[in-house]
């Protein structure tokens, strides 16, 4: 029997191991989920509110214990791990407080036609979640799915099985019926079996581009909806300003949050020429001051990466860019490879064609690009096959608003570090995304919007 292991990326200790499901077991779980759906779709809104409120309360009551699972599985800082749990709890309550209004029947009367638009569940939904925020990445999909009367089959990332199992247990502890939310310990190839099953009517993946295209192709062939969050390469633009220190502090935070392992963190720093050398100096100094070691120490802002394999990818990107004449401003080799430690790294004079410009840097590496003027800054920002988020910094708010209209991205933040909120649409363009998440769209993605004309 094949197994999936939870291994501490720093100590290499085995936390736990779980058996992977075989084909007959997967089919059985889909059948049980289908039977659960038949009952769940008749659940009242008041009952759903009670269950999800209980789930939010249990998350907060046990956040210290839950956060420690993030630490031992992916070596997230304890402080960030607590935020991962607390954010999930608050998002649950936002959807609890708003789902009824969003999904209530809508009456219409126009062109001598009257009737209602009503919302009905789709069926069994399949979701694939990444490891970088192990709780929130699952709950952000499961909450609206289940509130819309669907049931969820979830495959979590292979390096966080402890958290995956715990999330399933949390639903049961909150008195949800069995199989409304089901964790699946499966191989990636088993997604084909699940998506092709007649009971499964929707697919979602937050992962890498190749896997996303494969999931999309399966869903398209079956004619079921899907939402894909794939790769990102978010720009951080430094425009006209009189407070470079503030901008540098935000830039460092935007790059190093969760050790750089964050989809909507700043990936490319594009700086106007008149501030370029000063920004490079101040930014490099701040990055070199960062402490790298123990995730349980709140004074540390850096810690081991979640996977050993990530270090090889980092070094490939950096070495390629240096060979193409990027200038290294910091030490860039893994300080303790056996413990997955990699120091914050800064590169200047980065241009298109270098891996750190063209590819996503999903780790503590900061490429800095010089722009002669605002037009060139916009050109560099848009010179990417991806388009998720962008941060714009400066003093001239009208200038920033005009630039924001020209940025090719799903979301633009002005003088703020990018983050996500349940009440704001979350999506990207180009090769970053397919579909929309969060806010009203997120609930309506998971229903049949039925029109009844009277």
Which helices and strands appear, and what pairs or packs with what?
Blueprint: E1 3-7, E2 14-19, H1 23-40, H2 45-61, H3 63-74, H4 78-103, E3 106-110, E4 113-121, E5 124-128, H5 136-147, E6 151-155, H6 161-173, E7 181-183, H7 190-195, E8 200-206, H8 209-222, E9 226-229, E10 235-238, H9 244-256, E11 268-272, H10 273-288, H11 309-323, E12 327-328, E13 345-348, H12 355-358, E14 365-371, H13 374-382, E15 386-387, E16 389-393, H14 397-406, E17 411-414, E18 429-430, E19 433-434, H15 439-444, E20 447-453
Parallel strand pairs: 5-6, 5-8, 6-7, 8-9, 10-11, 10-16, 11-14, 13-14, 16-17
Antiparallel strand pairs: 1-2, 3-4, 4-20, 9-19, 12-13, 15-18
Helix pairs in contact: 2-4, 3-4, 3-6, 4-5, 9-10
Describe the structure.
With 454 residues, this protein is of the alpha/beta class. It has two domains: 3-230 and 432-453, Aldehyde Dehydrogenase, Chain A, domain 1 (3-Layer(aba) Sandwich); 235-414, Aldehyde Dehydrogenase, Chain A, domain 2 (3-Layer(aba) Sandwich), CATH 3.40.309.10. It has helices at 23-40, 45-61, 63-74, 78-103, 136-147, 161-173, 190-195, 209-222, 244-256, 273-288, 309-323, 355-358, 374-382, 397-406, 439-444, and strands at residues 3-7, 14-19, 106-110, 113-121, 124-128, 151-155, 181-183, 200-206, 226-229, 235-238, 268-272, 327-328, 345-348, 365-371, 386-387, 389-393, 411-414, 429-430, 433-434, 447-453. Helix 2 packs antiparallel against helix 4 (78-103), helix 3 (63-74) packs across helix 4 and helix 9 (244-256) crosses helix 10 (273-288). The longest helix has 26 residues, at 78-103.
């Amino acid at each position: 029997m094949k197994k999936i292991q939870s291994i501490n990326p720093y100590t290499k200790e085995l936390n736990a191991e779980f058996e992977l499901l075989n084909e007959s077991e997967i089919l059985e779980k889909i059948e049980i989920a289908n039977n659960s759906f038949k009952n769940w779709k008749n659940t009242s809104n008041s009952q759903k509110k009670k269950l999800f409120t209980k789930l939010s309360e249990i998350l907060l009551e046990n956040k210290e214990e839950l956060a420690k699972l993030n630490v031992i599985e992916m070596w997230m800082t304890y402080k960030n791990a607590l935020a991962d749990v607390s954010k999930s709890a608050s998002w649950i309550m936002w959807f609890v407080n708003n789902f009824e209004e969003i999904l209530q029947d809508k009456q219409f009367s126009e062109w001598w036609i009257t009737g209602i638009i009503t919302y009905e569940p789709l069926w069994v939904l399949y979701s694939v979640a990444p490891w970088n925020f192990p709780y929130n990445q699952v709950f952000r999909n499961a909450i609206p799915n289940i509130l819309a009367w669907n049931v969820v089959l979830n495959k979590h990332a292979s390096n966080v099985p402890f958290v995956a199992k715990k999330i399933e247990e949390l639903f049961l502890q909150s008195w949800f019926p069995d199989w409304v939310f089901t964790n699946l310990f499966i191989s990636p190839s088993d997604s084909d079996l699940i998506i092709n099953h007649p009971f499964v009517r929707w697919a979602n993946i937050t992962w890498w581009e190749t896997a996303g295209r494969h999931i999309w192709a399966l869903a398209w062939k079956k004619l079921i909806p899907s939402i894909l969050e794939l790769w990102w390469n978010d720009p951080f633009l430094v425009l006209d300003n009189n407070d470079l220190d503030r901008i540098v502090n935000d830039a460092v935070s935007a790059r190093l949050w969760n050790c750089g392992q964050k989809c909507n963190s700043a990936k490319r720093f594009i700086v106007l020429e008149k501030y370029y050398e000063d920004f490079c100096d101040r930014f490099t100094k701040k990055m070199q001051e960062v402490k790298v070691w123990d995730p349980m120490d709140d004074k540390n802002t850096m810690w081991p990466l979640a996977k050993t394999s990530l270090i090889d990818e980092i070094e490939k990107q950096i070495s390629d860019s240096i060979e193409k004449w990027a200038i290294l401003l910091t030490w860039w080799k893994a300080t303790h490879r056996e413990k997955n430690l990699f120091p914050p790294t800064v590169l200047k004079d980065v241009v298109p064609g270098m891996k750190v410009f063209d590819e996503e840097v999903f780790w503590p590496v900061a490429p800095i690009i010089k722009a002669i003027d605002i037009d060139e800054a916009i050109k560099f920002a848009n010179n990417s096959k991806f388009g998720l988020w962008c941060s714009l910094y400066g003093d001239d708010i009208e200038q920033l608003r005009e630039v924001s209209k020209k940025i090719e991205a799903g979301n633009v933040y002005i003088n703020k570090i990018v983050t996500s909120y349940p009440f704001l649409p979350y999506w990207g363009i180009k090769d970053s995304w397919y579909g929309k998440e969060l806010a009203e769209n997120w609930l309506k993605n998971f229903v049949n919007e039925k029109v009844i004309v009277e």
